Amino acid sequence: xxxxxxxxxxxxxxxxxxxxxxxxxxxxxxxxxxxxxxxxxxxxxxxxxxxxxxxxxxxxxxxxxxxxxxxxxxxxxxxxxxxxxxxxxxxxxxxxxxxxxxxxxxxxxxxxxxxxxxxxxxxxxxxxxxxxxxxxxxxxxxxxxxxxxxxxxxxxxxxxxxxxxxxxxxxxxxxxxxxxxxxxxxxxxxxxxxxxxxxxxxxxxxxxxxxxxxxxxxxxxxxxxxxxxxxxxxxxxxxx
Amino acid sequence: xxxxxxxxxxxxxxxxxxxxxxxxxxxxxxxxxxxxxxxxxxxxxxxxxxxxxxxxxxxxxxxxxxxxxxxxxxxxxxxxxxxx
Lengths: 240, 84
Description:
By secondary structure, chain A is α/β, with parallel strands linked by helices.
């Protein structure tokens, strides 16, 4: 399975993400400079964390007009996997590949700490190795993670099971006290209708190795590989 | 030349943590009569447009596409002939 990590000016989690795919998963991965437009040959494109274009104007607002972003809708349309982590999530929202917008954290503070997440939907390419309702720990590091969508959009996300992760307590309860940024519905991650585009504020690439003290993020990568393996098998059966 | 002055504000009803903090700051300074504070953005564009109508059309398009996020923000603008 071939991964690409998009590099915008001021992306800063690109190397961590590349490292996890390369060294932890052992799969081929390359950096994709934001001026590129060709996504042929990639199976999964990751928009990493950081402050693309300095987050000027709004987080992700200018990055979403980078040349590479013009190719992303077609890539997703062909069924390619798109994973937006933190700033990558903000870029996906600005680009309209996922609905809603990010506001400044309600605390006005940049939050850099571990949070607990409840896995709400395990029928996605990104979460199929978790259990429904499983509580996992992941680090966050952001100033604008206060997710907003209008009531109709929120209801639609809810109804279609597209809220993938929510901030929760140790017991898995969705409480205001467990919410680090004021996001509506304690939303930490959502996917598109087809399920092949996921955005989340927490950083799975920072918790996928035991040397870092936490491997709860590994499930995301294992899910991607498992999904891809199953998809290839189906394709092989069809071609027999 | 035309000058566009653009005001981008959070939509009514969208929580504005910055505005809340500024209001709190003003209250701490003793300004008790401030009922609400909303923080927005102010942009000034200098445009090389042949006429005002075209300048306004361009500004509207730029606001819709980039300068404001229609999910959470509204904008208003005024276009004036620039003296340069």
